[in-house]
C-alpha cells in the first residue's frame, strides 16, 4: 500500500508540474509579409527572434529584431535597413547582453553582407556592410571567447560562388578569411565545438547531385577535416547542432527530380563518421530547419510539411532517440493560419518545454506574421491538431574527402546605412498560465464549460462593443463546425446544441485581434 501511495504522489506531482507550465501560441508583425529565421533564448529568461519585415518600410523589407519576455510579450522591437530589401538570417546574443545580426543588404543589381551590432535595447552599436564587386551574403555569425566574431559568408568572384569563413574584430573589421569550398544551396551554419574549434555544415556539389557536407576548422580557420555524405538526391543543408556525445546532427531536406522533397537528418560522431541517417516523408514536401538535444539525450527536430489534402504547410516536430529511432511525431496545424506555417528555429525552454519560431499566413488577406509556439515538457502546446504517423526511411550514405583551397579576399567596405525603428504587435491565440502567475494577458472565458445547449463568452478582451467579430468553432482535427459574424458584447451567447458531444476550439477574431479557447460539448 505504501508503494501505491508513493507512486500516486509521484504521478500527481508530475501531472501538477505539467499543468503549471506556461504554454502559448502568439504571432508578431504588421499587415504585410514578415518572416522569422532565427530564435535565441536570452540571458534574462526571455526570447529574441530575427528575420525580415515588409510591414514597417514603405519601399522594401528590413531586418527585424523582436525581444520578448518568457511568456512571449514584446518588450521592444527594431527594424534595420535602407531603401532596398534587407534581411537577417542569424541572430546571437553577445556577452554584453546585446545582439549581433547578419544577413544581406541589397542595392541595385547586387547585395552585400550586412552586420548589425546592438546594445541590450536593440539600439545599434555599429553596423557594417562587407563585400566586393559581386553579390555577397552573410549566413551565420557567432561571438568567440576573445570578443571577436566568426562570420560565414557566400562570396561571389568572377561569377563563381564560394563559402568564406571570416574573423572580425569586436568592432566588425575583418582580421582573416579562409575559403572552404564552392556553395550549393542557400543556407549554411557554423557553430562552436566542445574543443573550441568550429564546425561548418553545408550542401556540396557532387558528380550528379548535392550532398550534406561537414567540415571542422581550428581556431584560425584552417581545415582539419571535411566529409561529404553521398546519397541519391539533391540534399539541402539548413542547420547543424553539436551533441553531448561530441558528435553532430545535420538537418535539412532531400529532393528528387521526379519525386517528392523529404526531410533529411544525419547523425555523426566527433570525427564526422556517419552513425545514422533518416529521411521523413509526409505528403509532397517536408523540410527541417532546426534541432535541439533534450536532457534525456533525445533529439527534437522542427520544420514543415506540405499537406496536399489541406493545401497548406504545417509545422512539424520529430523526436529521435540516440540511435535514430523515432519516439514520436507531432504536427501543429492552426485554423487561423490560412495557408499553414513554417517552423524555422527552435530553442529549449527553462521548464523542459520547447519554443518553436517561424512564420505563416493568418486569416487577414496577404498577412504573413512571425510566430512563437511554447510547449510544455511533454511538447504539447494545448491548441495543436493531430496528424497521422509519418513514413520513415534510411538511405545509404558514403563518406568522401573534400579538398580545401584559398582565394584572394575581396575588398570590404563599411558604412552605416541604417534606419532604426520600432514595429509590431502581438496577437494571442493560445495561452496557459502557470499556477499563481498574474493573469495580465488577454483571455476569453466561456461559461458554462462544459456546455449542453449554449454558453456565454466574456473576459478581459480587446474587442469594442458592437464591433463585428467572426466566431469560429472547430473540432480537434481543425474542421470548422460553425462560423458566423456577431456584434461583440459582454456575455455574448453562443448556441452549440446542434454540435455532437466532444471537445472543440472557439476562435473569436476581429480586424486586429484573434483569441482562442477550448470547451466541452456534453449531453443534455
Protein model, in words:
- It is a single chain.
- Among the domains are: 232-396, Neuraminidase (6 Propeller); 442-521, Immunoglobulin-like (Sandwich), CATH 2.60.40.
- It is globular and about 75 Å long.
- The protein has 524 residues and is mainly β.
- The protein has one helix and 38 strands.
- The protein is 3% helix and 53% strand.
- Strand 11 (149-157) and strand 12 (160-168) form a beta hairpin.
Quickly describe the structure.
By secondary structure, this protein is mainly beta. Helices cover 3% and strands 53% of the residues. The protein has one helix spanning 2-19; strands at 23-29, 34-41, 47-53, 62-68, 74-80, 86-93, 99-107, 110-118, 124-130, 137-143, 149-157, 160-168, 174-181, 189-192, 198-205, 210-217, 223-230, 234-242, 248-255, 261-268, 274-281, 286-293, 299-307, 312-320, 326-332, 342-348, 354-361, 368-374, 391-393, 398-401, 425-432, 445-447, 454-458, 468-475, 480-487, 492-495, 502-509, 514-521.
Write the layout of secondary structure elements.
Layout: H1 2-19, E1 23-29, E2 34-41, E3 47-53, E4 62-68, E5 74-80, E6 86-93, E7 99-107, E8 110-118, E9 124-130, E10 137-143, E11 149-157, E12 160-168, E13 174-181, E14 189-192, E15 198-205, E16 210-217, E17 223-230, E18 234-242, E19 248-255, E20 261-268, E21 274-281, E22 286-293, E23 299-307, E24 312-320, E25 326-332, E26 342-348, E27 354-361, E28 368-374, E29 391-393, E30 398-401, E31 425-432, E32 445-447, E33 454-458, E34 468-475, E35 480-487, E36 492-495, E37 502-509, E38 514-521
Amino acid at each position: 500500500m505504501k508503494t501505491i501511495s508513493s507512486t500516486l504522489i509521484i504521478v500527481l506531482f508530475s501531472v501538477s508540474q505539467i499543468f503549471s507550465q506556461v504554454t502559448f501560441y502568439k504571432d508578431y508583425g504588421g499587415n504585410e509579409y514578415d518572416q522569422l529565421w532565427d530564435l535565441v533564448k536570452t540571458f534574462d529568461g526571455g526570447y529574441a527572434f530575427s528575420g525580415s519585415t515588409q510591414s514597417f518600410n514603405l519601399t522594401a523589407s528590413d531586418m527585424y529584431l523582436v525581444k520578448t519576455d518568457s511568456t512571449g510579450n514584446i518588450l521592444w522591437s527594431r527594424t534595420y535597413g535602407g531603401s532596398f530589401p534587407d534581411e537577417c538570417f542569424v541572430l546571437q546574443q553577445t556577452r554584453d547582453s546585446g545582439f549581433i545580426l547578419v544577413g544581406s543588404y541589397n542595392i541595385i543589381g547586387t547585395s552585400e553582407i550586412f552586420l548589425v551590432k546592438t546594445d541590450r535595447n536593440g539600439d545599434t552599436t555599429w553596423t557594417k556592410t562587407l563585400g566586393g564587386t559581386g553579390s555577397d551574403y552573410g549566413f551565420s555569425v557567432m561571438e568567440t571567447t576573445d570578443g571577436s566574431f566568426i562570420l560565414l559568408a557566400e562570396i561571389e568572384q568572377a561569377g563563381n560562388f564560394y563559402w568564406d569563413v571570416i574573423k572580425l574584430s569586436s568592432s566588425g573589421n575583418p582580421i582573416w578569411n579562409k575559403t572552404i569550398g564552392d556553395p550549393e544551396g542557400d543556407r549554411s551554419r557554423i557553430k562552436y565545438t566542445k574543443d573550441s574549434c568550429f564546425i561548418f555544415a553545408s550542401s556540396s556539389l557532387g558528380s550528379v547531385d548535392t550532398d550534406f557536407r561537414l567540415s571542422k576548422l581550428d581556431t584560425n580557420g584552417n581545415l582539419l577535416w571535411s566529409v561529404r555524405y553521398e546519397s541519391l538526391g539533391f540534399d539541402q543543408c539548413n542547420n547543424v547542432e553539436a551533441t553531448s556525445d561530441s558528435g553532430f546532427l545535420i538537418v535539412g531536406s532531400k529532393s528528387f527530380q521526379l519525386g517528392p522533397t523529404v526531410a533529411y537528418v544525419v547523425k555523426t560522431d566527433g570525427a564526422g563518421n556517419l552513425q545514422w541517417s533518416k529521411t521523413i516523408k509526409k505528403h509532397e514536401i517536408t523540410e527541417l530547419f532546426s534541432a535541439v538535444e533534450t536532457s534525456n539525450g533525445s533529439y527534437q527536430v522542427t520544420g514543415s510539411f506540405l499537406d496536399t489534402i489541406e493545401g497548406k504547410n504545417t509545422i512539424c516536430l520529430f523526436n529521435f532517440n540516440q540511435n535514430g529511432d523515432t519516439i514520436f511525431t507531432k504536427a501543429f496545424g492552426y485554423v487561423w493560419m490560412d495557408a499553414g506555417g513554417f517552423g524555422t528555429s527552435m530553442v529549449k525552454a527553462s521548464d523542459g518545454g520547447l519554443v518553436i519560431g517561424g512564420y505563416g499566413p493568418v486569416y487577414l488577406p496577404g498577412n504573413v506574421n512571425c510566430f512563437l509556439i511554447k510547449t510544455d515538457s511533454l511538447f504539447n502546446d494545448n491548441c495543436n491538431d493531430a496528424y497521422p504517423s509519418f513514413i520513415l526511411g534510411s538511405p545509404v550514405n558514403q563518406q568522401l574527402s573534400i579538398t580545401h583551397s584559398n582565394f584572394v579576399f575581396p575588398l570590404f567596405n563599411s558604412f552605416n546605412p541604417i534606419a532604426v525603428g520600432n514595429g509590431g504587435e502581438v496577437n494571442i491565440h493560445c495561452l496557459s498560465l502557470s499556477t499563481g502567475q498574474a493573469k495580465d494577458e488577454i483571455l476569453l472565458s466561456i461559461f458554462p464549460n462544459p456546455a449542453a445547449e449554449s454558453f456565454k463568452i466574456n473576459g478581459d478582451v480587446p474587442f469594442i462593443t458592437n464591433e463585428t467579430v467572426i466566431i469560429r468553432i472547430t473540432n480537434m482535427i481543425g474542421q470548422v463546425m460553425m462560423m458566423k459574424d456577431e456584434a461583440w458584447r459582454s456575455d455574448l451567447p453562443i448556441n452549440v446544441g446542434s454540435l455532437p458531444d466532444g471537445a472543440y476550439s472557439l476562435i473569436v477574431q476581429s480586424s486586429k485581434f484573434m483569441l482562442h479557447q477550448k470547451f466541452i460539448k456534453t449531453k443534455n
